[in-house]
User: What shape does this take?
Amino acid sequence: MSASRRLHRVAVLVLEGAKPLDVGIPAQVFTTRASMPYEVRVCGAAPGLVTGGDGLSYHVATGLDALAWADVVFLPGYRFPDRDAPPGPVLDALVAAHERGARLAAISTGAFALAATGLLDGKRATTHWHYTRRLAARHPLVRVDENVLFVDEGDVLTSAGAASGIDLCLHILRGDLGVAASNHAARRLVAAPYRSGGQAQYVPRSVPEPLGERFAATREWALHRLGEPLTLGVLARHAAVSPRTFSRRFADDTGYTPMQWVLRARIDMSRELLERSERSIEQIAADVGLGTGANLRQHFQHILGTTPSEYRRTFTQGE
Assistant: This one.
């Protein structure tokens, strides 16, 4: 990292009743290290002791001034979010941070605090499945989506339960530093590097565990063979089920059809090769199973809204 390159600033706002896992996820994902150009400050409404949930409390050294400093502000989930809204000064500081250009990202029930600012009005958002109806009832102008892991509305982001907070953090990291850095962080966390925001967060019907394991194994198998022909039939044979069953269960698991998932996995692999190698666009297209540079450019533009060359320039500059 260049000495002149400013660290990305991350504030984690601890509210009364904050859940420890929700607080710890962004603090750990964005911890400062050579591969992670971030600085993290855990803060509260005021410096001092904050009573948390699950029998834990937090001693924070920083108050709301951290929100005026941060590029990204995380709002971890907290107990009893559908009761009282956070204090007025907290909401005012969040709005001021947003107006200054900071992104606000809520994990789980932190969405209630974000919604209380009015910044989610007219926008899609999610929260833990147990609270989605209550969020919709308390904030009827928010378009609550209960069937996703996270929602990115650009300057405001929300995620479902605690584990999906990891997915949201990796999504933000992927946008800031590229897919290679995101995958590196996922490996460090022993977390899944590729879970889309559109994946269902809660499926009421149970999926037999052996079938779930088999599908996970098929996805892992496919990730190591993206350069090879991967059709629905090939994937279904590996999972030892019919193509129809595979398609239905795969969509339940991932939020994508099998071939949509393969395409996005190929685009992710191409992003990493663009960042980490000097291979040509044509070579990368062949490596990831997209055939030609024209195909890679077409799918890259459709999914990411940019070109492979521009992406490479963005994530290799200053290195």
Remarks:
- Strands lie at 8-13, 38-43, 48-51, 57-60, 72-75, 103-106, 124-125, 143-144, 150-152, 156-159.
- The longest strand covers residues 8-13.
- The mean pLDDT is 87.
- The radius of gyration is 21 Å.
